[in-house]
Specification:
single chain, mainly alpha, two-stranded antiparallel ribbon, 9 helices, 2 strands, 7% strand, flat
């Protein structure tokens, strides 16, 4: 199943008008391999000739679909959406992402601990829980046709000087 097919399947049971569905599907063409938007939403709206407000709505709706985090603007939003889906917005990990993302990315656990007045060990535990989230929600989908690469024959059969000659290619077996 491609990512587009997966998203279209989810949209079938939802009450969006045709234009809203099209906007959500348009955004799929602007996702990177991780499933995040490649560029700011304002640029996408301009390229697509669509009002920014309608593309913002499309992104909000895309963020409610599975897999969680699909359509996020960046890693931070991707991870926060996953925590929101799990109703973990009152956790230390959510607050770290919300308020101290740069410090987290630099692994400044002491600085984060001081900010929240908690132990550095608590910050480390929260960071471990964050790393258990999926930073690449589109990773299990492949938009490109499956390529098997080059097919190597195990043997060739040729007629040489009136006789059939079988050559076995041992490197294949």
């Amino acid at each position: 199943v491609t990512l587009a097919e997966h998203v279209e399947g989810q949209l079938l049971g939802m009450r969006f008008d045709d234009e809203e569905k099209e906007d959500i599907l348009r955004l799929l063409g602007h996702l990177n391999d991780y499933g995040w938007l490649k560029k700011p939403l304002a640029e996408i709206a301009e390229e697509e000739g669509r009002p920014l407000e309608e593309m913002e709505f499309a992104q909000e709706m895309l963020l409610t679909l599975d897999p969680p985090g699909l359509g996020a603007s960046d890693l931070r939003q991707c991870l926060m959406v996953q925590l929101e889906r799990e109703k973990r917005t009152k956790t230390l990990e959510y607050h770290i992402l919300e308020e101290c993302f740069v410090a987290l990315s630099r692994r400044k656990f002491e600085e984060i601990a001081a900010h929240f007045d908690v132990e550095a060990e608590d910050v480390q535990d929260a960071a471990d829980r964050i790393t258990a989230l999926n930073p690449r929600p589109a990773k299990d989908f492949d938009e490109a046709p499956v390529s098997c690469g080059h097919v190597w024959s195990e043997m060739t059969i040729e007629k040489q000087e009136g006789k059939w000659v079988v050559q076995v290619h041992r490197e294949v077996t």
